[in-house]
Fold these 2 entries.
Entry 1:
Amino acid sequence: MLEKILTHKRAELSLRKKRCPQSQLEASLHLAPPPRPFAQALRFPGKVRIIAEIKRASPRGPIRPDADPVKIARLYQRGGAAAVSVLVDERFFGGKPAFLRLVRWEIDLPLLYKEFVLDPYQVYEARLLGADAVLLIARLLRTEELRMLKELAASLGMDSLVEVHSRDDLQKALAVGAEFIGINNRDLATFRVSLQTTRLLRPLIPPEVVVVSASGISSPLALTCLREWKVDAALIGEALMAAPDPEAKLRELVTAAEGGEGGCSE
Ligand SMILES: O=C(O)c1ccccc1NCC(=O)[C@H](O)[C@H](O)COP(=O)(O)O
């Protein structure tokens, strides 16, 4: 499936570059709203902050296919999210780049451009839409590509959330000086999810790095564990989007993330 996603993404990119060349994106950057700090908005020692994700579907199937991204963003802001991740991939996640721009005008929280970023074109697009950070998946990029995309994002005022799932990915992230690392609990090849990925990789990351745990987080207990493991933030999509009341679900998770009762028994 991952190969299918990437093949589709490369074809889509080449089409979009023909329709709207990168030079046009670059020339329009002055129209973008100014970037805001993303990673630093997540640093609250002793608490886990929540990045709530707008995700209408996944490659595994629909989640909330008709969700209005603007309405969901408002619920997330009211529910106590520290930041919002917007999936912009259309084919596999039911998103659209335009969702990010709409959400940017609607709420004040910092925004993550959530995409399979393979090319500088997408980094320019992210900034033009109003993103404050971009996702860079270590597994999909060679070290030099990762470095180049991270530097480009920084030159445009954005943070890069460098996603890792293995020790090899983490080595790559640290080699390029990542200051903001996301540990993905989901193996992108098998879709299997385990919070143990965060438990095992977290201690290998230096304390000055802002650390996010992503995927498969759905319960107050999971948030309690992430707090014990000294993770700064949790990125949560499906558990919120599939909930009958996403705002209420978010409030429940924020309470645990900020210091609810009980200990971690994972
Ligand atoms: O969500 C998937 O199944 C998925 C499959 C293949 C590649 C990426 C995938 N997800 C992208 C994400 O990064 C997640 O949306 C994000 O970590 C939130 O995960 P969750 O809370 O489990 O929705």
Entry 2:
Amino acid sequence: MDKMINLIDFGLKEETKRKFEENYKGYFLGRVSVEHKNMYRVITEKGEILSKISGKLNYKAILKSDYPAVGDWVILNKDNEKDGIGIIQGILPRKSVFSRNIPGKKNEEQIIASNIDKVFICMALNNDFNIRRLERYISLAWDSGAQPIVILTKADLCKNISEKISKAEEVAFGINILVVSSINLEGIDRIKAQIKPKDTVAFIGSSGVGKSTIINILLGEERQKVNDIRKDDKGRHTTTYRELIKLPCGGIVIDTPGMRELQIYNGDLETSFSDINEISKNCYFRDCKHESEPKCAVKKAIEEGKITEERLKSYKKLQKELEYMEDKKLLNSKQLEKKKIVNMLGSLDGIKKIKNRK
Ligand SMILES: Nc1nc2c(ncn2[C@@H]2O[C@H](COP(=O)(O)OP(=O)(O)OP(=O)(O)O)[C@@H](O)[C@H]2O)c(=O)[nH]1
Ligand SMILES: [Zn+2]
């Protein structure tokens, strides 16, 4: 740990650095690289430090998203450096966020990774190729705040590449589309060219499309495992993959297990369906659902072959999913308010007592 680490190599931006230096004198800055159960690995200038969150941060945290996530820039307490455990005092504002619903019980946002600048959406050119799925991934990417780039993988297995590219272009407005084969290394340089030195990038897409293969090629070696000094529930020493990886060509890759099972949480329909949004401005009714309303510009565009029926269908389907999510979030925010009041007053009984006094 004697070798100093330059956090710029781990994606530290001027703005984040300034914010930290102005507001947190006496503390030190780090970036979360792995999330364990109640512990985090944090990369600092002095090396990777196993850390936990402060009691205060834990007390203030209401939602899952109030806890640190991989990619977060966090403020660490200097005093606790001696015993090897860092104490996370706070999280700097996130520039971009990838999240998903917590499977099972609560409908709450769980942050999978944060502060990603560019996200490579991977789709294989063989049987995985599905334009509707690509649409969803693009929507999800825009909403995260990261810049999407499409990678069409396994080019060696495809005979009608140009046809598939034009199909992808139909849904990927203004987005770079790269054609790649990890077998003959075609297009790998184009991926490298997209990753600038301070960029934090991530790869998303269905299982088996070749994400790990690309990451390994960029790394020039197999993914390293990190040996964990912590023991798991059964007393075993556990091994985990490093989830925030520095690339030899410059830049950082975030690859968490959660990234691989991303579902739509918050699609940004405005951007990914800008064609439909634009056309629908000419619908006679402002709240036109593009179903059986008269003078519907979207229906007309379909008749004229400007957009496909399928695209409208997937737009509507996504819209429904998002509305459903919004309802749930609304419910969630009500529960949140309640919880905040309870935190303030100690308990719901406390609220009743105050009310009764009036
Ligand atoms: N023909 C061909 N096969 C590839 C290419 N890239 C990867 N593969 C193969 O596809 C399989 C899956 O690749 P992975 O890199 O593990 O896929 P992944 O997207 O990381 O999958 P998950 O870890 O499940 O998310 C492996 O058997 C690879 O060897 C390619 O460009 N061409
Ligand atoms: Zn309409």
